[in-house]
């Protein structure tokens, strides 16, 4: 081998490998460029995470106006906050404002612990009562008084919800502790043939932006469902008994049992109506789907009863507990009882917040 040949051999080999490297880069560049040009659109990719077909979030329309059809002039609606937990009264503004704008007077029953009247005494001058997820138990006297009140034609609206499912600020209540139904509501509802399931409802297949926002539709045409095609409830509880007015859509699941079914969330039993949710009355949910129509129907329900006698539940006669039972804290101070014929329209208790259209 010549000296020239031996000197050129490394150069040739270096050039050979450099050529291979350049060729590889060119081929790689062409391949990458070709791949970028032919990449399918995201909508063409068979990606279950984008379009699974298993769950559908369908946000409800947010429109409408809360209104009433009934004339509420002269009607008195009492909201019981004495037995409830931490009620966000500001969240009740749409309910209170609509009632008062239509002529009703709205009072907050604060109870004897805040130097207010006993419940039975507050009911005598009332036409309707709203109960918000009671956390303090009702005494036997109060339960008897409520029964006499509704038997006489007074209207009662029971709003209940599971505990832990609703974070602070979303419903009418403050922070809560468990996902079980507030037990003080059970004996109150049961005397009207109503009850609540434990846990909360959710739907992983059809929901409004969040799987806990379940849809419900009417079971038929009733006073409570007039104008309602679909309503939205946040982590509601099942309502049993009475005449069911709205049920959740299919494949709704109860958290306690994991059972998929349709569940009642609004029902009526005579002069008593119940809703397994409080969020429908709040600003966040009031105007979703047909919620404002449902709430308007519930307000009409409250003011269209005719109570007779007007002062029911009447105080007990001497030596007789009567339908209203004994009234705690309402004695004469010497072991006597209240007069049997009190003023049918007593002045509002100074410790009750009174709002009217005047």
TrEMBL record:
Residues 38-66, 306-358 are annotated as: Disordered. The chain crosses the membrane at residues 12-36. InterPro entries: DUF4350. Residues 97-299 form the DUF4350 domain. Keywords: Membrane, Transmembrane, Transmembrane helix. Residues 321-336 have a biased composition (Gly residues). It comes from the Archaea. Residues 40-55 have a biased composition (Polar residues). This is DUF4350 domain-containing protein. The lineage of its organism: Archaea, Methanobacteriati, Methanobacteriota, Stenosarchaea group, Halobacteria.
């Amino acid at each position: 081998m010549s000296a020239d040949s031996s000197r050129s051999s490394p150069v040739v080999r270096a050039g050979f490998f450099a050529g291979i490297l350049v060729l590889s880069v060119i081929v790689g560049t062409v391949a990458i460029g070709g791949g970028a040009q032919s990449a399918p659109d995201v909508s063409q990719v068979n990606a279950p995470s984008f379009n699974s077909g298993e769950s559908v979030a369908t946000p409800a329309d947010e429109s409408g106006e809360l209104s009433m059809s009934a004339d509420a002039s002269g009607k008195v609606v009492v909201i019981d906050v004495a037995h409830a937990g931490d009620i966000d009264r500001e969240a009740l503004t749409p309910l209170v404002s609509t009632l008062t704008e239509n002529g009703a007077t709205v009072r907050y029953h604060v109870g004897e612990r805040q130097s207010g009247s006993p419940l039975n005494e507050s009911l005598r001058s009332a036409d309707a009562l709203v109960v918000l997820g009671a956390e303090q138990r009702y005494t036997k006297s109060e339960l008897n008084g409520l029964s006499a009140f509704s038997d006489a034609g007074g209207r009662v609206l029971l709003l209940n919800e599971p505990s832990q499912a609703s974070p602070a600020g979303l419903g009418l209540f403050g922070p809560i502790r468990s996902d079980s139904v507030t037990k003080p509501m059970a004996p109150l509802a049961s005397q009207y043939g109503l009850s609540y399931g434990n846990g909360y409802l959710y739907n992983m297949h059809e929901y409004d932006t969040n799987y806990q926002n379940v849809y419900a539709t009417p079971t038929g045409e009733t006073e409570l469902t007039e104008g309602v095609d679909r309503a939205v409830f946040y982590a509601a509880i099942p309502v049993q008994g009475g005449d069911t007015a709205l049920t959740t859509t299919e494949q709704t699941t109860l958290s306690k049992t994991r059972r998929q079914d349709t569940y009642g969330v609004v029902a009526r039993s005579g002069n008593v109506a119940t809703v397994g949710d409080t969020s429908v009355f709040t600003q966040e949910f009031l105007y979703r789907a047909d919620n404002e129509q449902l709430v308007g129907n519930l307000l009409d329900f409250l003011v269209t009863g005719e109570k007779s006698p007007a002062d029911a539940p009447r105080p007990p006669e001497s030596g007789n507990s009567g339908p209203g039972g004994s009234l705690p804290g309402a004695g004469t101070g010497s072991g006597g009882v209240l007069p049997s014929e009190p003023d049918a329209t007593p002045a509002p208790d100074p410790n009750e917040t009174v709002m009217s259209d005047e």
